[in-house]
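ok new one. same drill as before - structure tokens go in, u give me an amino acid for every spot. 619 of them this time. try not to just spam alanines like last time pls lmao
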């Protein structure tokens, strides 16, 4: 056994010896790369280093005409490697090229070729604002109801408009210790002598100062640094106010001269102001995700632009659209969400005629009529605050079709006005939207939903030749409000809603109440039910006291309004008791006779959510 162990130990040493390299250098690194190369006070930006299996090259950029006969580069190479000439050793680059030899720790070598190129100082010179400030907003990302768009910032905040003719001058004075260009500059007001401001005025919030979010350009003189590592322009005023803006060359704006247009974008981050329901414009400003200035080099223009500073809207030589003919409503929208209850409008027809285009003003004018559709009802708007538009039935119109010289398809400068035969006017609050010759969208601020809540905006989308239908016509009478009804569950007949239906504590007395509907008649259009309601408080003779909204014996009127996305029948419910009329805020009915869920909503101070409702089922 002892002999066998000695043999195994000898074999182990023999194996270890066989694994040792014949050349000790094989254990050392063979990396021989140049990692960084910089000449302080000479080089602009980092070196472009390229290493493949077939070549090892690097390029540096310097200001043309500089003395390169005695420069001292700082060089970083692979761990354990050495370079000749060494880092910090003076060399002559006046020929425009140089060859270094890098020796790896393990002894292998590689030649590196350095090329010196003159730096093309693209940013130096005079520039002008080539188009109105743009911004991209996105409200409700990931939500079905969300929307986004890119448009001129001045559409939402008119005080920004003076920026459109401003100028920018950048003068290079040298290079800093990081290889970045430095210089002086100024951002000056144009012919109007005005700078942009970021004060937004609204009726409900007064003046809102958006300067901390959208005001990122210093007015007047500044010093600047062009950070070539991060491609950003850093502007510093005499008061040490610093503005750091990414610099993006915009070849898409001018592909023939790609370095004559640049953008300075930034994220305004005004969402910290929160959800402000005052106006549609203000909401978009709060959720702006990106804003930018577009600058064009002096002597150049954007494609399709014949001007220079101050690209104002132009009057086209002919109207880009003809309105003559009939237009139907394809959509009635509102923001942020809810049920507008606008049913009768959908089949109405707007007809334009006798149009004339004035080439001196850019106004397309003519006559119009607005008539009811097949349902014979022009509108069922019941907007107590008066913010929901009600179109006049006849008169004249004026559509101003000014064009953006940089985007002739844009309608951002289009405006619309209706003048009724009695002289009253309806003005569209926002620019006319839509696309092509067969669609226009008229957008208005404000408006009220069927539940009494206000909207930020609402709009009517018209399609040429479209004939719509009333989407809210009532279903045929189906014994809806007849017979005996009682508590929907074994807990209570009174509920409130958060994320689900919850019975209200202390309302158990409604469990044995019975609500009987009788003597019911239905109107010819199938929308209105009237009849008698009889309330029996059961064996205990008690019920929950909801004040004026307690269901009592009397007469009722139920008016159908619409059907929601879950098939719920929505209407109004009014109770008349001894000549006193009580209007409930809303009623809804879900299901059929086998499983009715009839809800009659009313406000109550005992509800933490503000509203309670009777929740009944047919017995």
């Amino acid at each position: 056994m002892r002999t066998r162990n000695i043999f195994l130990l000898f074999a182990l040493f023999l194996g270890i010896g066989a694994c040792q390299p014949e050349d000790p250098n094989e254990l050392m690194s063979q990396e021989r790369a140049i990692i960084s190369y910089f000449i302080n006070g000479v080089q602009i930006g980092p070196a472009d280093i390229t290493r493949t299996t077939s070549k090892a090259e690097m390029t540096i950029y310097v200001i043309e005409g500089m003395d390169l006969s005695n420069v001292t580069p700082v060089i970083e190479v692979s761990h354990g490697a050495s370079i000749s000439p060494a880092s910090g050793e003076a060399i002559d680059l006046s020929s425009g090229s140089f060859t270094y030899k890098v020796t790896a720790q393990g002894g292998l070598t590689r030649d590196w070729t350095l090329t010196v190129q003159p730096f093309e100082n693209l940013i130096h010179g005079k520039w002008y604002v080539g188009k109105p400030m743009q911004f991209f907003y996105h409200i409700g990302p990931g939500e079905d109801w969300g929307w986004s768009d890119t448009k001129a910032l001045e559409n939402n905040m008119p005080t920004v408009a003076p920026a459109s003719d401003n100028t920018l001058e950048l003068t290079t004075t040298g290079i800093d210790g990081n290889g970045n260009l430095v210089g002086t500059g100024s951002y000056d007001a144009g012919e109007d002598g005005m700078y942009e401001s970021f004060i937004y005025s609204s009726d409900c919030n007064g003046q809102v100062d958006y300067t901390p979010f959208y005001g990122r350009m210093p007015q007047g003189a500044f010093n600047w640094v062009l950070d070539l590592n991060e491609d950003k322009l850093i502007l510093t005023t005499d008061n040490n106010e610093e503005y750091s803006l990414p610099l993006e060359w915009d070849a898409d704006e001018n592909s023939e001269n790609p370095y004559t247009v640049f953008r300075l974008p930034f994220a305004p981050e005004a969402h910290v102001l929160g959800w402000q329901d005052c106006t549609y414009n203000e909401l978009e400003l709060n959720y702006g995700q990106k804003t930018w200035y577009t600058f064009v080099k002096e002597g150049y223009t954007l494609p399709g632009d014949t001007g220079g500073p101050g690209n104002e809207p132009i009057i086209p030589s002919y109207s880009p659209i003809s309105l003559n003919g009939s237009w139907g409503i394809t959509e009635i929208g509102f923001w942020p969400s809810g049920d507008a209850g606008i049913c009768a409008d959908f089949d109405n027809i707007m007809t334009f005629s006798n149009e004339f285009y004035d080439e001196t003003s850019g106004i397309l004018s003519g006559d119009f009529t607005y008539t009811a559709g097949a349902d014979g009802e022009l509108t069922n708007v019941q907007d107590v605050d008066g913010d929901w538009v009600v179109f006049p039935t006849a008169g004249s119109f004026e559509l101003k079709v000014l064009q953006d010289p940089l985007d002739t398809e844009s309608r951002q400068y289009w405006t619309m006005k209706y003048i009724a035969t009695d002289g009253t006017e309806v003005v569209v609050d926002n620019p006319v939207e839509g696309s092509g010759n067969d669609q226009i969208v008229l957008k208005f601020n404000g408006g009220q939903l069927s539940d009494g809540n206000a909207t930020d905006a609402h709009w009517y989308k018209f399609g040429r030749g479209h004939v719509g239908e009333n989407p809210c016509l009532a279903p045929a009478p189906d014994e809806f409000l007849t017979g005996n009804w009682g508590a929907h569950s074994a807990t209570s007949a009174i509920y409130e809603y958060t994320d689900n239906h919850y019975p209200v504590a202390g309302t158990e007395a409604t469990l044995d109440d019975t609500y009987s509907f009788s003597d019911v008649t239905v109107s010819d259009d199938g929308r209105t039910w009237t009849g008698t309601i009889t309330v029996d408080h059961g064996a205990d003779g008690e019920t929950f006291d909801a004040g004026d909204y307690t269901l009592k014996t009397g007469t009722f009127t139920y008016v159908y309004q619409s059907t929601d996305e879950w098939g719920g029948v929505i209407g109004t419910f009014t109770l008349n008791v001894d000549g006193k009329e009580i209007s409930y805020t809303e009623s809804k009915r879900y299901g059929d006779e086998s499983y009715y869920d009839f809800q009659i909503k009313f406000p109550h101070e005992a509800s933490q959510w503000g509203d309670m409702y009777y929740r009944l089922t047919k017995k």
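The CA atoms of residues 30 and 108 lie 6 Å apart. and btw The first helix runs from residue 2 to 19.
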